[in-house]
């Protein structure tokens, strides 16, 4: 019978309209924005201030919900509110990403050494926390190149930083190049309310909270509001000895042993 559909005929495929395509694209952008703002954000390690814990070329995942949310949790840091929403205090020993105190467009990553009320001092290159020397054990000689291709040659130690809020001691490695200079013989600092004290694990090659002056790289105490998130894991890592466009070197520059490496 003419005009009737045969059993094998299929309904015509409806073409997607321009409006629907734009809507799907907007939904995708919104999902990416939500994940990056509220869940996790990738962060590249550009300098050697956290050696040996983090290596130049590491890509870490930053947990955005660990400390709650401030305006710095969101792309472009919109100044729509102050303080933190669902905020919680970080723990001593956390490796955290936060905004630089002198330029909040810049991200820093350091270890949280002191919390409000803590007394911190470095004497003869040794960390003193609340009047007690933080124990450390020598792990021998250590050498590595920094971001400027300079050789960092010193001693690696396993430091035992007392935990906070009932948490156990945080065992982590540090690098010591010297016991001389201001950074190794500091005054005693008392961390004020609403702030924390941060230091790099490369103790002699880190611009951190020991520097409290007016210099362009002086960090000082860091307001809790500047926290972006905690860095619990290295997603992957690349040596990056060659320019990025030389893609044929990529397979040899991947540090396979740092894939999903835990940050402690």
TrEMBL record:
Topology of the protein relative to the lipid bilayer: Single-pass type II membrane protein
Domain Peptidase S26 positions: 20-235
Catalytic reaction equation(s): Cleavage of hydrophobic, N-terminal signal or leader sequences from secreted and periplasmic proteins
Matches recorded under InterPro entries: LexA/Signal_pep-like_sf, Pept_S26A_signal_pept_1, Pept_S26A_signal_pept_1_Lys-AS, Pept_S26A_signal_pept_1_Ser-AS, Peptidase_S26
Main subcellular location: membrane
Domain of life: Bacteria
Subcellular location: Membrane
Listed EC numbers: 3.4.21.89
Transmembrane segments: 21-39
Keywords, sorted A to Z: Hydrolase, Membrane, Protease, Transmembrane, Transmembrane helix
MF term (GO), any: signal peptidase activity
Cited Pfam families: Peptidase_S26
Family under the similarity heading: Belongs to the peptidase S26 family.
Identification of the protein by name: Signal peptidase I
Record organism: Gluconobacter vitians
Top-level taxonomy: Bacteria, Pseudomonadati, Pseudomonadota, Alphaproteobacteria, Acetobacterales
């Amino acid at each position: 019978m003419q005009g009737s559909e045969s059993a094998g005929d299929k309904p015509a495929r409806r073409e997607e309209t321009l409006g629907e395509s734009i809507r799907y694209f907007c939904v995708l952008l919104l999902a990416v924005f939500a994940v990056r703002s509220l869940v996790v954000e990738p962060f590249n390690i550009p300098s050697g201030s956290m050696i040996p814990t983090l290596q130049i070329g590491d890509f870490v995942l930053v947990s955005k919900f660990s400390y709650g949310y401030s305006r710095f949790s969101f792309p472009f840091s919109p100044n729509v509110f102050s303080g933190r929403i669902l905020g919680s205090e970080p723990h001593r020993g956390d490796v955290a990403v936060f905004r630089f105190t002198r330029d909040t467009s810049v991200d820093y990553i350091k270890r949280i050494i002191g919390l409000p009320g803590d007394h911190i001092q470095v004497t003869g290159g040794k960390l003193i926390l609340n009047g007690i020397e933080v124990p450390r054990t020598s792990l021998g000689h250590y050498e590595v190149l920094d971001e400027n291709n300079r050789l960092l040659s010193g001693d690696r130690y396993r430091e035992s930083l007392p935990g906070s809020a009932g948490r156990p001691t945080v065992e982590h490695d540090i690098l010591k190049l010297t016991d001389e200079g201001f950074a190794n013989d500091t005054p005693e600092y008392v961390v004020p309310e609403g702030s924390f004290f941060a230091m790099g694990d490369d103790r002699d090659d880190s611009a951190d909270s020991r520097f409290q002056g007016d210099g362009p790289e002086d960090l000082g105490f860091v307001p809790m509001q500047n926290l972006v998130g905690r860095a619990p894991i290295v997603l992957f890592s690349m040596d990056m000895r060659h320019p990025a466009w030389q893609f044929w070197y990529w397979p040899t520059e991947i540090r396979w042993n740092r894939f999903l490496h835990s940050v402690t």
